[in-house]
Write a structure and sequence with these properties.
The protein has 619 residues and is α+β, with helices and mostly antiparallel strands. It folds into 3 domains: 244 residues, Phosphatase 2c, domain 1 (4-Layer Sandwich); 120 residues, Serine Threonine Protein Phosphatase 5, Tetratricopeptide repeat; 119 residues, no CATH class. 63% of the residues lie in helices and 11% in strands. The chain is built from 18 helices and 11 strands. The strands form 2 sheets. Strands 2, 3, 4, 5, 8 and 9 form a 6-stranded antiparallel beta sheet that branches. Strands 1-11-10-6-7 form a 5-stranded antiparallel beta sheet. A hairpin with a 3-residue loop joins β4 and β5. The longest helix has 52 residues. It is elongated. The two termini are 27 Å apart. 32% of the residues are buried.
Length: 619
């Protein structure tokens, strides 16, 4: 109905100028509800380039399949044309400037890329003009070039937007009302490079009823200049003799006003509800932030129980707010705090070996919680190390006492007492005192017995040599504590015999053994950290990294000849490989299914494309 209740007349001229082939094109489609007018200028030196033709065919085809004048549709028409040029098989890339005009016979919208131009004349005056997408046009807008110099400027064809680009972006105008008597003109650079705006305005200051007359006037004006190297030129004029008037306009306006009022009331109600909802969310977010701030304060005070309570409140609020980022962060904090609390419980229960493992696990967790409590954990680990040193000295003293090395045992007990006193370790200090009491009691009895054994020095030398042998055997088997006991007992015996050569020899062995023990302890600690990191990765589903961390731990145990521990870790590596293979199988099956769906979709698109028909009105 719109087309038959309006009057649009279209005419155009298009010639090759002084070129061998005309690479300009103009086409239009007038449907019942909408019309489309397209002009394109091929950007190429190729004589037989079809870039402009392909561009217009693509736009008209897209318009015919989905007619309309919305901004989104016009953008889709231009993007489809750009894809068609990019898919061209020519050895030279297809490129073109283009301007598209869409109308519903009452309003119109235009879009363009490049330097084809559009002008709208009303009552003899130019009312609207498009802008070239060129470096020269930018210089005019920045007042670095006079507008009347644009047509001859060397950068006028240096375009930053045109069809045939990988990253294409066109200009899309707003809708504009048409009036009876309006004239829309479209033309290529063959026109505007040789005829200025004032001359074109003069042509349309007084016009007849037929657009072809004005097209001929423009062509005559162009040819009268007799320009050298005249480029292809195309000029089209669209006369809007009568625009479409909707007979139901008043009823529709009244209906729209009613709808607007209803929508406004609903919007006010919804707006109020949204305000209350947002206010509630804001208050919850403030409470969440305050709870987390409280948790951080308790962490600074090393009060991890209260910190866990506040962090739990913050996590609950984050879940209500559906804040995934905050949930993830607070969850990591909560897990870390729980790990520290478990370690503290073991520490307070004097389960120092268990506490050490728990603190190492908590240390791994801190990496996911902004390294909170790292200093606290390090201090606790150092404290446990000092406690272990006290117990180690007492244990070593017990072993020395068991083998009758009273002076060395006394030295170890006294060192344990000194270390325990220095760190206010009451339990350790008391154990050291009890051990000293037992030592002195046994030592007194042993001294009496030793006076009766002075004649057995030769046997002692043999015993010392046997102790060294046993120590070497224990060292070779990885029993470094046992080796230390044997060496210290042997050292005591040789010291008693004043054998300086053997004393020097044994001192070197002891020094080397101490270094080896320290190295083993360090390596075992590293292996435990790798195991804990592997458990974290396993929980996160990263089985490849978990397997790698377990293998690191296994290698360390293997180097330390702890075969049982290495075999245990190998079983975990096998489990990770099984889980990884299962995950990869599921991923492969999913990828296969997605590929199948993509193939089916592509086949369907090709079938639909083959059914489409193009409509083109060319010169």
């Amino acid at each position: 109905m719109r087309k038959y209740n309006s009057s649009f007349k279209t005419a155009f001229v298009s010639e090759e100028g002084s070129k061998l082939k005309n690479n300009d094109y103009f086409g239009f489609v007038e449907l019942d509800q909408y019309a489309c007018y397209v002009i394109a200028d091929g950007i190429t030196d190729m004589r037989d380039s079809e870039s402009a033709k392909k561009a217009i065919e693509a736009v008209v085809s897209a318009f015919h399949n989905e007619p309309g004048i919305s901004k989104g549709k016009l953008k889709r028409y231009l993007k489809y044309a750009n894809k068609e040029l990019l898919r061209g098989k020519s050895y030279e890339k297809l490129k073109a400037s283009i301007t598209v005009v869409l109308t519903d016979y009452a309003k119109f919208r235009y879009g363009h890329a490049g330097n084809t131009r559009l002008r709208l004349y009303r009552d003899g005056r130019m009312l609207l003009a498009s802008s070239d997408m060129s470096l020269s046009q930018d210089m005019v807008e920045k007042e670095r070039l006079a507008e009347d110099k644009l047509a001859k400027h060397e950068e006028r064809n240096n375009l930053y937007s045109y069809l045939g680009q990988e990253h294409f972006k066109a200009f899309i105008s707003k809708k504009k009302k048409l009036a009876d008597g309006d004239i829309i003109t479209l033309y290529t650079r063959g026109i505007w490079e040789n005829i200025d705006e004032g001359e074109l305005s003069d042509v349309f200051a007084e016009t007849g009823n037929e657009p072809m007359e004005e097209c001929d006037k423009v062509e005559d004006l162009l040819l009268s200049r007799q320009p050298e190297n005249l480029d292809n030129y195309t000029f089209a004029a669209i006369y809007v003799d009568k625009v479409f008037i909707d007979p139901n306009r008043r009823k529709r306006i009244k209906k729209i006003i009613t709808i607007v009022l209803v929508v406004l009331i609903i919007a006010l109600v919804v707006g109020g509800l949204i305000w209350l909802w947002r206010r509630n969310r804001r208050l919850k977010r403030e409470d969440m932030a305050q709870c987390f701030a409280n948790a951080e304060t308790y962490i600074e005070d090393n009060n991890y129980v209260r910190a866990k309570e506040e962090c739990g409140k913050a996590l609950a609020l984050a879940e209500k707010l559906r804040d995934k980022e905050a949930q993830n962060r607070y969850q990591n904090y909560l897990v870390c705090l729980e790990a520290v609390i478990r370690a503290d419980d073991a520490y307070d229960g004097a389960k120092y070996e268990e506490a050490e493992e728990a603190y190492l696990a908590a240390k791994v967790r801190t990496r996911y919680a902004d390294n909170i409590g790292t200093e606290y954990i390090e201090n606790r680990l150092q404290q446990i190390g000092r406690y272990e040193q006290v117990f180690n000295n007492i244990t070593l003293g017990d072993n020395l006492l068991l083998h009758g090395s009273y002076e060395m045992a006394e030295q170890r007990y006294l060192e344990a007492k000194k270390d325990a006193s220095a760190i206010y370790f009451t339990e350790g200090k008391q154990q050291a005192l009890d051990a000293l009491d037992k030592l002195y009691e046994e030592w007194s009895a042993a001294k009496e017995e030793a006076e009766e054994l002075s004649a057995e020095q030769a046997a002692d030398e043999a015993a010392a040599a046997e102790l060294i042998r046993q120590g070497d055997e224990a060292y070779s088997g990885g029993d470094y504590d046992g080796a230390m006991v044997f060496y210290l007992i042997a050292l005591e015996k040789y010291t008693a015999m004043e054998d300086t050569a053997q004393i020097s020899f044994l001192n070197k062995k002891i020094v080397a053994l101490n270094e080896k023990q320290q190295e083993v302890e360090t390596r075992v600690s590293e292996a435990k950290e790798f195991e804990e990191q592997a458990r974290v990765y396993e929980e996160e589903g990263d089985y490849e990294q978990a397997k790698l961390q377990y293998q690191y731990a296994k290698n360390i145990y293997g180097e330390l000849n702890q075969e049982n521990r290495a075999d245990e870790i190998q079983s975990k590596v096998d489990i990770m490989e099984t889980k990884q293979e299962k995950a990869q199988g599921e991923a492969a099956e999913k990828e296969k299914e997605e590929a199948k769906k993509e193939a089916e979709k592509k086949a369907e698109e090709e079938a639909q494309k083959s059914m489409s028909e193009n409509t083109l009105y060319d010169r």
